Amino acid sequence: NNYETKDSQLLDFYGGVGVFGIMNSEKFSDVIVVDNHQLSLNLVKKNCELNKIKNVHPILLEDRNLKELSLNKPLFVIADPPRAGVHPKALKYLNQLKPELIIYVSCNLNQLIKDLKELNNYQIKSVAFFDFFPQTKNLELVLELIPLKN
């Protein structure tokens, strides 16, 4: 962690059961886990209760409605979308929000390339590849995206 995050908010977008948000909850003042599946968000609540984590807040929301969410600055984002990528409306909103950092986790290189074109206020700082599915052509990619310098 090369970023000052203690007084910042983390958006765990497409958060599922909140693994990324919960793992990073000690580093942020506030964590919002957004997913469109209530059962997953119930598990976020349960994990937080079991681990006595108070600053993680699960929110049921469709990705295209991200703009309805009230987010604070400074903002950091972890996005782990399905193979179809981030909804275009959400991409546009993320670009407008200008988070300090976007960590984009992707299992679909072609969609990732399309999404990166829309995130035109950002540049790639680092990339990591993970082979979770040996002997297949599928790789998990994790990108660290930082705002373009003016």
Automatic annotation (TrEMBL):
Pfam families to which the protein is assigned, alphabetical: tRNA_U5-meth_tr
GO molecular function: RNA methyltransferase activity
Entries under InterPro entries matching the protein: MeTrfase_TrmA_AS, SAM-dependent_MTases_sf, U5_MeTrfase_fam
Organism domain of life: Bacteria
GO terms under biological process: methylation; RNA processing
Family: Belongs to the class I-like SAM-binding methyltransferase superfamily. RNA M5U methyltransferase family.
Protein name per UniProt: Class I SAM-dependent RNA methyltransferase
Organism: candidate division WOR-3 bacterium
